[in-house]
Amino acid sequence: MLSRVAESIYWMSRYAERAGNTARLISVNLGLAIDTHDSVEQEWDPIVKVTGDMELFRSLYDSTTRENVINFMVLDRNNPNSIISCVNCARENASSVREIISSEMWLLINRFYHKLNSDEAKQKLLDNPGKFCEVAKVQSLLFHGSGYISISHGEAWHFSELGKQMERADNTSRILDVKYYTLLPKAELVGTSIDNMQWIALLKSTSALETYKAKHQQISIGNVLDFLILDNQFPRSIIYCVGQADESLHCISNSPAGSYNNETEKEMGRLLSDLRFISVGEIIQRGMHEYLSSFQSHINEVGNRIYDDYFGYSITDSTLREFDNI
Question: Which residue from 182, 200, 292, 314 puts its CA 20 to 30 A from 97's CA?
Answer without folding.
Answer: 314
